[in-house]
Amino acid sequence: MEHRASVIENLGEVRAMIKRHKRNDLLFAGLGLLCLMLGLVTLMLLFWQLIADGYPKFTLDFLTEFPSRHASRAGLLSAWTGSLLVMTVTFVTAVPIGVAAGLYLEEYAPKNWFTDLIEINVSNLAGVPSIIYGLLALGLFVYMLGFGQSILTAGLTLALLILPIVIVSTREAIRAIPVSIREAAYGVGATKWQVVYDHVFKYSYGGILTGVIIGMSRALGETAPIITIGALTFIAFLPPAPITAEPPFLNFEWLSSGFTVMPIQMFNWLSRPDHAFHINAAATGALIIVVTLLMNGAAIWMRYKIRKNIKW
């Protein structure tokens, strides 16, 4: 009887503990949902305020006109063109180097103290303030290498900024591939390169692509490093066209051209006392947020489609 009473008493304690843990789970879930909704509502309110303020400038002329001293005639043509060209240099530079570095560290690099040191530094670099990259680029690209205050310098600066993000996302995507995939490939006689290229890389492509797009969306809105290297705040001309009608059909003079980008143009308009320029800045901010959300949405959609087609 004593044993039975002891069991019943312990059973009551277990039920009480389970009930307490379920209550804590509900509280934590509610707190997490509250924080999520608080962040989303704040973002939506700010976004709606930008749309409401910048609505008068949501026209085609705003995208096809150069900046002007008159707010009613000012546009974003040179700014979004500069952003597009800078992002092109950033993508071409950061993605191949970042993906290759991630593949090497995860699949080829020996596991020793040196690679551990590299991994720690790469992870730490992902959290370094962007202004530090601007100061590094100012000394390295502008003065030491003599690239000047150009599109090439801006693209390389932002490439350094997102390089740790690309490397870390590549490694995380590769780690998500089951070991059995590699073992099966080796079992049928595949070489190391065949395993990495035909199986590991192709199966992790969705995760890698997601990290690349998220890194590019971050670079699109960066202002501090671009200001540091000396981007122009008012520019009423376009860089030379990258593609020409005459052989060899490619022109690289645009790499050394002066430039501005959308965040810099927005900052310039906000610094003006005239309220009409603030309307232009609000429209620019809304446009940057829309492009960023579209890029992140595209990353999520492509990752879903790619993973859906993978058959383990």
Can you tell me about this structure?
The chain has helices spanning 2-54, 60-64, 77-108, 113-125, 130-144, 151-175, 179-187, 192-203, 205-220, 224-228, 262-270, 275-308. With 312 residues, it is an all-alpha fold. It folds into two domains: 6-54; 58-309, MetI-like fold (Orthogonal Bundle). Helix 3 packs across helix 11. The chain starts with a helix and ends with a helix. The model has no long low-confidence stretch (mean pLDDT 86).
Question: How would you concisely characterize the structure shown here?
Answer:
Its main location: membrane. This protein is an all-alpha fold. 73% of the residues lie in helices and 0% in strands.
Pick out the low-confidence regions.
none
Compute the number of strand runs: 0
Sketch the topology as an H/E string, one letter per element. HHHHHHHHHHHH
Terminal CA distance reads: 56 Å
Question: For this structure, what is the CATH homologous superfamily of the largest domain?
Answer: MetI-like
Portion in beta strands: under 5%
Mean pLDDT over all positions: 86
Please, how many domains? 2
Looking at the structure, the CATH topology of the largest domain is MetI-like fold
> Radius of gyration, Cα only, in angstroms?
26 Å
CATH class of the largest domain: Mainly Alpha
Helix count, DSSP H or I runs of 4 or more residues: 12
Tell me the helix content: over 70%
Structural class: mainly alpha
Topology, element by element:
Elements: H1 2-54, H2 60-64, H3 77-108, H4 113-125, H5 130-144, H6 151-175, H7 179-187, H8 192-203, H9 205-220, H10 224-228, H11 262-270, H12 275-308
Helix pairs in contact: 1-12, 3-6, 3-9, 3-11, 4-6, 5-6, 6-9, 7-8, 9-12, 11-12
Main location: membrane
Domain ABC transmembrane type-1: 80-299
Protein name: Phosphate transport system permease protein PstA
